[in-house]
Amino acid sequence: MSSLKPFSKLPGLNTANILLVESEEQFQQSLADALVEETSVTVNVRLAKSLPLPLENEESRPRIDLVVFIINLTSELSFQSADASLKYLDPGYFLGKVCFLVTNARNASVPTERLDTVRKLAAALHCPLLFAEDQTPDDVTNATERLLTILKVAAGLVPLATALYLSNLTQCTVPLDIDQPSFD
């Protein structure tokens, strides 16, 4: 199994390719359906439970412009799968072509340590961290709009904007006191 490389293939004209990685596939399909409805550019969506991708169809696979790891905070398996998949990405992807999409952050049963761990991971990799809910169609639409903005820049479809520049503007930062004990 090989790592996914961002610049190994030529881009398509007025086309953006996104890879959605989610171990549980709860939010993945509804998000994919909403993304392909975009009319200003052609959006090709690829779905995966985890990385690495199989070698069988590597020749026909288009260049992936953005890799989105969907992490459901109510599931420890979701985070572990995303974390394990990161090693199969070429380091070039971390120059603005990876983001994390977190769901169920508002759920009261989610341990705060899990959210802190995801924030630390996104900050360490200098990747955007988006929060989204998947309960209603409006929630899916909001997540789709945010992902499309990042995808268009990552695919080079926005003049005078680069994925690295956008990544610097949207990267997750962790407050210095996150590791300090709370005195509440």
Biggest beta sheet attributes? 5 strands, parallel
Low-confidence stretches: none
**Helix/sheet category:** alpha/beta
Principal-axes shape call: globular
DSSP helix fraction: 25-40%
Beta-strand fraction estimate: 15-25%
Average pLDDT score? 88
> SSE order in H/E notation?
EHEEHEHEHH
User: What topology, given as strand order, has the largest sheet?
Assistant: 2-1-3-4-5
Count helical runs. Answer: 5
Terminal Cα separation, in Å? 48 Å
Number of β-strand runs:
5
Indicate the radius of gyration in whole angstroms.
16 Å
Mind explaining what this structure looks like?
Helix content is 31%, strand content 17%. The protein has helices spanning 28-35, 76-85, 112-124, 137-154, 163-170; strands spanning 15-21, 42-48, 66-72, 98-103, 129-132. Strands 2-1-3-4-5 form a 5-stranded parallel beta sheet, sandwiched between helices. Helix 1 crosses helix 4 (137-154). The longest helix has 18 residues, at 137-154. The chain is globular, with a radius of gyration of 16 Å.
